[in-house]
């Protein structure tokens, strides 16, 4: 991305038999801001993106159990 910003944040939670990867991502074009904060109460990311141009954001969970 030549003029703008993209960010991704991850949090890995391990138990004896499983691990869970929580992630949040966002992008914006110039003249804006991105805020990604982990919310441990909900195990999710709080994402705020603002811009005069294009923006996008999302989050997800990936689990791996043996």
End-to-end Cα distance: 38 Å
Order of helical and strand elements: EEEEE
For the secondary structure, the number of strands is 5
Strand content: over 45%
Gyration radius, rounded: 14 Å
Shape verdict = elongated
What is the percent of helical residues? under 10%
Count of DSSP H/I helices: 0
Largest sheet: 3 strands, antiparallel
Poorly predicted ranges (pLDDT <50, ≥5 residues)?
A: none
Q: Helix/strand-derived class? A: mainly beta
Average pLDDT figure? 88
Biggest sheet strand line-up = 1-2-5
Structural summary, described in words:
It is built from no helices and five strands. It has 66 residues and is an all-beta fold. Strands 1-2-5 form a three-stranded antiparallel beta sheet, with no helix packed on it. A two-stranded antiparallel ribbon has the order 3-4. It is elongated, with a radius of gyration of 14 Å. The mean pLDDT is 88.
């Amino acid at each position: 991305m030549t003029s703008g910003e993209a960010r991704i944040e991850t949090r890995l939670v391990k138990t004896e038999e499983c691990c869970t990867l929580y992630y949040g991502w966002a992008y914006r074009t110039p003249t804006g801001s991105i805020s990604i904060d982990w919310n441990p109460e909900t195990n999710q990311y709080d994402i705020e993106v603002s811009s005069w141009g294009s923006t996008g954001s999302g989050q997800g969970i990936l689990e791996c159990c043996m």
